[in-house]
Specification:
two-stranded antiparallel sheet; Arc Repressor Mutant, subunit A; 5 helices; about 130 residues; mainly alpha; elongated; 2 strands; single chain
Length: about 130
């Protein structure tokens, strides 16, 4: 299983905003430089995070991006869903089957993973000294 690079950048962006700039807007250029990614690419990711309500966009000369109101509640799964969507990771290729036994196992495993990702809040990460 593999998540896209966009999810990787989105998770790192959220961690940066939580740990280093919880209350002030941060420009896309600065966020992109911190991660070594192009501002244009990161801007598309930020747009998805804004649309999902995880971050806010602030206009103006001192504008940029800030955390949304529910910053303490943002989970890994929230960010993943904002970037990747909510479609199942596995779909049985046997369309005529009433009940695919392989699909049952895969869905069960996916639910367990999603529960773990939902419980892990980004704000709870131990950033150390």
């Amino acid at each position: 299983m593999k998540f896209s690079k966009a999810t990787n950048y989105a998770l790192h962006t959220m961690l940066f905003l939580i740990s280093e700039a919880p209350d002030k807007p941060v420009g896309v250029q600065h966020l992109a430089e911190k991660q070594g990614v192009s501002p244009a690419y990161l801007s598309k990711i930020l747009t998805k995070l804004v649309k999902s309500g995880l971050i806010d966009s602030v206009s103006g000369a001192n504008g940029g991006y800030t955390l949304g109101a529910q910053r303490k509640d943002v989970s890994f799964l929230d960010v993943i869903h904002a970037i990747e969507g909510t479609a199942s990771l596995f779909n049985c290729c046997l369309n005529g089957e009433k009940e695919c036994l392989i699909q049952k196992v895969m869905v069960s495993a996916e639910k367990a993973m999603e529960e773990k990702l939902k419980m892990q809040k980004i704000v709870e990460l131990d950033l150390g000294p």
